[in-house]
Amino acid sequence: MTEAGSKMIETTAGRVPVESLGKTLSHEHLRAGNEGIRRQWPHLFDFDEEVAMIAAEVRSAQAHGVETVCDPSCMDLDRDVRFNIAVAAATGMRFVMATGIYGQAYETVPPVLARRPNWEDYLAELFVHDLQVGIQETSVKAAFLKCAADKPGLTPHMEKVHRAAARASLATGAPIMAHSDPNSGTGIEQMRLFLEEGVAPELVVIAHTGDTDDLDYIERLLDLGCYIGLDRYGSDRFLPLERRHVTTLALLERGHGPRMMLGQDAVISLDIRHDPPFAAHITQIFEVAIPELVRRGADPDMLDRMVGANVRSWLAGEAPAPAGEEAPAGEEAPVAFVKADRSLCIGSGQCSALAPRQFRLGPDDRVEVIGAGAVPPADADVVADAVQLCPVEAISMDSGRPGQAPTGKEGGGV
Ligand code: SF4
Ligand SMILES: [Zn+2]
After folding, report:
1. Residue 27 C-alpha to ligand 2 middle, in angstroms?
2. Domains of the chain
């Protein structure tokens, strides 16, 4: 098991050694909403009432041993660190805060930002401010970066936000949490961008990967060395509970437990539900998911890691433990990716003989790309040879997008 070392993590309780975070939920929002509505019509909201309602829910998580919650709210989700500070004071819970931009409808950022020259670098500076100086003029600093891609994919604006998050990560060592829509295949595109920017894959968690039961997609994503969030237990509109259980068990069976995080992506208070106050629960994984997974044979210790050690390892930027028979994740970040045009292939087999980690012949004796087609540095020369020797130029290697992305169903959420 890869347990995190002594890296210090910024929280609402100050800087603490990562190993002292204890049982940690990776992705639960105390609240989310529209910043404009709260600013323009504050009479709709009662700060103290919301704090009390959320504190009650937080205490129920503490009854399950939770000591720390990563709250991934950021710009466009009405992040308000004073709110977290108040709930922390009421409950003793620690919160790990985020910085970043969620985007309007997963597509755009305000023109006042997007009209600036080199605005991704400007955003990176803003993010670094939150990581190193403090959030919203408090002494509480962010500890991770947040960005999002959903059904619209990596739009031009969202691509720049991702690059800004990557550059802030490179400048500070902070980890990244990326909201994804696995049913649109965004996770692989997002990881590809982070790797292009030079981010170590073990610093990234692709959130909401558990919204699909497409194991091929999930394993192609895991090929890229990141952590994944099975973090929407309870959101049946994205994937029903039974299919989440089956997917989690299959991934555990294949040895991916060290790279998985369990959660609910709860928004305890969401402004559109505010009248009357609505509490989404952050204890469902303890009351429903984990007991059922254990009943079906899952290892309780590994499930415990998914709400503790794995989250701490991501926050510390540590590579996950080996998954099955794979090389240790994060040991070799890909330098390129292969593609294949199966319609050209004549099945001569040089590629699979020379580069068996990237190519194989399918049942029809035509080339298939294995996984995401990632090319680690150690394989770069041999893959280049394979590409050159293909008699019909059916394969290539570049930094372009890996093929085989699945197509979409419903996205959204936070
Ligand atoms: S070397 Fe080219 S033709 Fe031969 S199997 Fe590979 S892709 Fe197909
Ligand atoms: Zn969320």
Report:
1. 6
2. 8-316 (3.20.20.140), 336-398 (3.30.70.20)
